[in-house]
């Protein structure tokens, strides 16, 4: 379980980008973070991904206090967390399968990483994750020849092959057509159900959050003003965060 208590992020100029955020993420939860532009969604995701430092508060991952971890402890924790960019960053000339394998290779020994040797298990694991994200028929296609939605699927498959327990995705569907947006959200939801991955997505489209997420966090000027589970937002709630 992930628990954040009083998480705040103050910029050097003094501006509070996140202010006293409290929240809890159960294993396998699918959480959408919504809020108007500049409300702090990306900052929150980057803090949860340990890519940005918070200035106050506590972040516990399975009981471990991230503030108290040393260099190697933090590295181990980072291995459990995957962060997806808006536009999936892939090795363009490599196939979807190779891109996933590179993720899996991050989990194997130094020697095999250096030599690029791939075991049959790694290969089978990578093919299985590609199947899980509905991309088995694109396994041998070069990344540069994949559509935006397919690229996001490869990035997700790579994160799963890498053993991520927490997947943070910043606007993973922006720039995709509405049909692909729904497909990606459905695929993410399936992963939370079938693999138990905890997924947090920052989203602009509220209707996607309502349709697919189990829980909605609403941010307003760096404060968490909504934490809603299992129901749609009221009109007043929608107005507050848009
Ligand atoms: N390093 C920084 N330096 C200056 N301002 C920053 C920095 N990081 C964040 N901000 C500011 O903090 C606020 C929150 O930014 P953030 O990117 O987290 O918002 P967001 O909700 O993800 O916005 P968007 O939906 O437009 O991506 C914004 O006003 C942004 O300009």
Structure description:
With 242 residues, this protein is an alpha/beta fold. The chain has a single domain (2-241), classed as Rossmann fold, CATH 3.40.50. Helices cover 38% and strands 24% of the residues. It has helices spanning 41-48, 71-79, 96-105, 110-115, 120-132, 148-161, 178-195, 206-212, 235-241; strands at residues 2-10, 16-25, 30-34, 56-61, 64-65, 81-84, 166-170, 198-202, 215-220, 223-229. A hairpin with a 2-residue loop joins β4 and β5. The model has no long low-confidence stretch (mean pLDDT 89). Adenosine-5'-triphosphate is lined by residues 11, 17, 35, 37-43.
**Structural class of the helices, strands and pairings?**
alpha/beta
Could you say how many structural domains there are in total? 1
- The unreliable regions are none
What is the element string, with H for helices and E for strands?
EEEHEEHEHHHHEHEHEEH
* Overall geometry: globular
CATH superfamily: P-loop containing nucleotide triphosphate hydrolases
C-alpha-based Rg, rounded: 18 Å
Helix share, percent: 25-40%
Span of the ends, CA to CA: 29 Å
Pfam families: ABC_tran (PF00005)
Keywords: ATP-binding, Nucleotide-binding, Transport
GO molecular function: ATP binding; ATP hydrolysis activity
Protein name: ATP-binding cassette domain-containing protein
Chart the SSEs and their pairings:
Blueprint: E1 2-10, E2 16-25, E3 30-34, H1 41-48, E4 56-61, E5 64-65, H2 71-79, E6 81-84, H3 96-105, H4 110-115, H5 120-132, H6 148-161, E7 166-170, H7 178-195, E8 198-202, H8 206-212, E9 215-220, E10 223-229, H9 235-241
Parallel strand pairs: 3-8, 3-9, 6-7, 7-8
Antiparallel strand pairs: 1-2, 1-4, 4-5, 9-10
Helix pairs in contact: 3-5, 3-6, 5-6, 6-7
The structure holds adenosine-5'-triphosphate.
The site of adenosine-5'-triphosphate (ATP) has 10 residues, from helix 1.
